[in-house]
Design goal:
four-stranded mixed β-sheet, 10 helices, 299 residues, single chain, elongated
């Protein structure tokens, strides 16, 4: 498979996942409308989810940077890193992003921001110290690809869908305990079964939505790998970088389950990576598969 067909295939798979997510949302909304015989709940939940996502869209990058304690740098602070990002940004046809350094020994990196004009690339101190120039270029190209591929916009859309499902679930469970079902005349055996299924769906739907969101995140990693390799014209650089990052035992103190998906490779190491919850909600595909795909590419 060529680099171009790889990127196209991953894009198609991502769209299919989003369609599946929309089907889940519509089905969940239909269940609510049937049980409560009222569409107002769905309308209210949609408005609340959009408002919440709007706030996240404008301030998510600032929140992430503050929680990780990353610090901004200028060209004079690290001329070599600045030139690498500047050259690759020109190649990618993207504006120069802001550069932040995270004072952590684990080699890793991530990109954040709401669009290409407000983008930030964060690299750890360990990445600069432990990786060679070609490997750093591979990592930076990967992060620029996330910006160029509009992954942040995609994530915002998915967040809206997840928010709607979560709010609907919360409303459903609350009203279930306080009443709000159809009248007692409708309490047939089938109606009781439907209501029980509704409660089960209200509990499981947010979990399913989160897992589907993580699946989309995993697919975007493959696409960013492919696009990043196209920028550098050297897939081996990123492949070797992923090997070093995954093999490094250093912990990343600022990593948690809420921001782990941002990094180029899972920041959880050692015993932390063996936690069943971390495995279930893993936001990255197996690094071995990513390396294999990179080394099989033809440019």
């Amino acid at each position: 498979m060529s680099l171009y067909s790889q990127a196209e295939a991953n894009t198609q798979k991502t769209f299919l996942l989003i369609i599946g997510f929309c089907i889940l949302l519509i089905g969940f909304g239909w269940l609510f409308s049937y049980i409560f015989d009222n569409y107002i709940i769905l309308i209210i939940a949609t408005v609340l989810a959009i408002c919440q996502s709007f706030f996240s869209y404008w301030y998510s990058d600032k929140i992430v940077l503050s929680t990780t304690k990353a610090k901004p740098i200028e060209k004079k602070d690290n001329p070599e890193l600045y030139r690498i990002i500047e050259n690759l940004s020109i190649t990618a046809g993207l504006p120069m992003p802001k550069i932040y350094i995270l004072n952590e020994s684990q080699p890793n990196a991530f990109a954040t921001g709401r669009d290409k004009n407000h983008a930030v690339i964060v690299v750890t101190q360990g990445l600069l110290e432990k990786l060679e120039r070609s490997e750093i270029e591979g990592v930076i190209a990967h992060e620029l690809s996330h910006i160029g591929n509009k992954d942040i916009l995609l994530s915002t859309v998915v967040v809206i869908l997840v928010g709607i499902i979560a709010i609907l679930s919360d409303f459903f469970l609350r009203i279930s305990f306080w009443g709000g079902r159809r009248s007692s005349s409708d309490e047939s055996k089938s109606g009781i079964i439907m209501f029980a299924l509704g409660i089960l769906a209200a509990i499981l739907a947010p979990i399913a939505a989160s897992l589907l969101q993580l699946a989309i995140s995993r697919k975007r990693e493959f696409l960013a790998d492919a696009t990043g390799a196209l920028l550098t014209r050297y897939p081996e650089g990123l492949a070797r970088a992923l090997e070093k990052i995954s093999d490094d035992p250093s912990p990343l103190k600022t990593a948690n389950t809420s921001n782990a998906h941002l990094f180029i490779s899972s920041p959880f190491k050692g015993n932390q990576s063996k936690n069943w919850l971390v495995k279930l909600f893993s936001t990255h595909p197996p690094v071995e598969e990513r390396i294999k795909a990179l080394r099989e590419m033809t440019i």
